[in-house]
Amino acid sequence: MEILTEEIGKQMKSIKVIITPEDYKATVEKGMKERQRNMVVDGFRKGHAPMGLIRKNYGKYVLYDVLDKLVKDSMENYVKEEKLTLIGNFIPTKENYDLGDDWSLDKSLEFDYEIAIAPEVSLDVSYDEVVPVYTVDITEAMVDDEVKKLQRRYSNYAKPDEVGEMDYTFGELIQVDGKGKEIEGGIKSRGLLSLEVFSDDKEKAKFIGKKKDEEVVFDIKKAIKNETDIAHTLNIKKEEVADMSGKFKYVINEITRIELPEVDQALFDRVYGEGKLEGMEAFRENIKQNIQYTYEQYTRSQMAHDLKEYMIQKLNPSLPDEFIRKYFTYKDEKGEEAEMQISEEDYEKLTKSFKWEYIERALDARYNFDIKDEEFMQMGVYLLSQTLDNQNMPSDDRSLSEHWPNFIKEKKNVEQIQSRLMEMKTVDAMGQLVKTEQQSVPADLFFSKMTYLETMRKNKHNH
Fold this sequence. Notes:
By secondary structure, the chain is α+β, with helices and mostly antiparallel strands. It folds into three domains: 2-116, Trigger factor ribosome-binding domain (Alpha-Beta Plaits, 2-Layer Sandwich), CATH 3.30.70.1050; 130-139 and 268-462, no CATH class; 156-259, Transcription elongation factor, GreA/GreB, C-terminal domain (Chitinase A, domain 3). It contains 15 helices and eleven strands. Strands 6, 7, 8, 9 and 10 form a five-stranded antiparallel sheet that branches. A four-stranded antiparallel sheet has the order 1-2-4-3, with helices on both faces. The chain has a two-stranded parallel ribbon with strand order 5-11. Strand 1 (2-9) and strand 2 (12-19) form a beta hairpin. Helix 3 (140-153) crosses helix 8 (280-315), helix 8 crosses helix 10 (344-367) and helix 8 crosses helix 13. The longest helix has 36 residues, at 280-315.
């Protein structure tokens, strides 16, 4: 067996693997005899079918398997011995396994491939730019909003006799003319109205004090300013809202009132468990910390995105363009086209992912991203706690212990734990190289800075 290589371009090599009869003949013949020994053919005793028949029906498969293993092993050994890191995989440059009907097993065979060598990435450059890290100062107003959400989450529902200012009503909506008469062919729908979101006090006042089965004539376009909400309430398309008449008669079928709990120790115990938090100050401080943590997750994800983009632009590892484009259109071992069309936009994403892969390897080599058992456990418990909270389930120590065995059995959960830890380690490593600077922005502008969310949305849409 012999391997011949030649430089054919930037970071590219051709590889010719020469397999001699001494390399494959004995193994092929042994494989044929094993087939013959186990084969049952009509008209012959088991193991006594003619070799010619075995060769005719199964010879190609045996030969292919033997050659495939020899070629792959030889190339993998070459890569290992030369300590090469490849981009992608080997690309065949001809129909290597088109061997015809020659069964002499006495000729040398040649297998031709191309490979691309991954770039060596040096982290020792001058990082001049400062990457902003966006943060939010948590205000008392933000805490107040969260308290209101908790009140609603732990509220009770009542069925009052009359409509109040914050009530929900369910009933029948009927489009009417200026005189309150039903429009023939007009919109009719059953829907839910929340007086809390009414933006016009005069329209809201028409509902106050009304009872079940009573009627209200109102202008829905004045009461509700958001066209999407109007369309949803009337079960029509948003495009129909602009030109329609907003006059509707509403027949009240049901009245629902949300009774908010007092913000006191009883609520604290319901939310966090009895005795876990004592007093208003501790309650609000805990809420503030939770808000802070939520924003910090967005901050860290955006920081990771910005640092990654900066590192790719700054280090810009070299890639053999010719090879990468060919990688998606080459012929496989059977001579069939891969037939994968790739747009320029997708090609740019692909090359960026290759570049980031080699930068990440360089970071790992310097800073060691090995995940320790205690790190895995800590992250896993945190993610399980989040899962339980999102499902409105207790997340105390007892509950975590009960759910942990099933949680950790799920492959997706293990992968999520590892992914989050790797991201954290990568961000920490980049933060040691690149200067960052915290920039506090108002909460209403914060998400306009989270450009990674749009990138995620586009990627999800494309997939």
